[in-house]
Here is the input.
Amino acid sequence: MTHPTHIRRDLTGDRPLLTALQLAKRGLPVLPLREGKGPMGNCRGCRKNACGGRPNMKTPGPCTCPAPCHAWAAATTNPHILTSAVWAPAWQQAAAVAYHPGGAGLTVVDLDNSGAAAWARQNLPATRTVPSTRGEHWIYLGTMTSTNAVRPGVDIKSLMSYARWLGPGIGTMAQLPDVVRALAVKEPAAAQPAARPVGVAAPAGGGQCPHRSPAYLERGIAMAEQRIEEAPDGIHRTVYRMFLAVLSAHGRCGCLTETHIGRLFTAAQGRGESLRHCEDAWSNAVAVLGM
Here is the structure.
């Protein structure tokens, strides 16, 4: 099976079934989409989940019929299923092709508008990009939990989700970074604050330093400060995500100092976060990353 990163650039999508077969041959599990980007409706035998399939589509359930009945779970690379008589009506009505990113070992950051795309260019590592109707799809190697609305105009599509095929895109596909994984992480509600009256200690480090200059770290801290200061709402969640992003990028090599941490805490407290909440968020981020 050819790896999905080597999909040819000559797939036009003019004929959904032909495009689906070409994509399936290269390792992308595919399914037909109706007009409006939704998956095809259940087949007669699976109406209202009579077969036992899960209504939330998170698992395919015991259904074994070959029809495209359960959204992402229907996606397949099997050409015999794609061209079967059961699937024929779906392809005849199909307006587009979708694929299951997680099934191909991929994650799609779906940027729904120009503002979200601008945010990604400032905050996410470069990777393969595909223009969409209103924004862009950024595609990374690796899988994670799919989560919608991780921030305004940003959805994550990977495991148990589907994305519309919009073309091969441009650029080299990068490994899924921690900063994207962090977008889907919810801060543990029951975590206790660190056992210290004020402040937190910088990580001990010891890992290999990826920074080419002190400016790289300075830029990361400044960007985190700016995101905190400009967050329109959900400040507690924003603070946690920024702490998590900074730690994932700079926390293992020993470059991050208590001065840097103090700047982040100051930015958070300037938006109304208490010192205790800052310490809780930092401790939770350290725990999530296993540091």
Observations:
- The longest strand covers residues 106-111.
- Residues 138 and 203 are 31 Å apart (CA to CA).
- The beta strands are 30-33, 96-99, 106-111, 128-131, 136-141, 147-151, 154-157, 163-164, 174-175.
- The two ends are 37 Å apart (CA to CA).
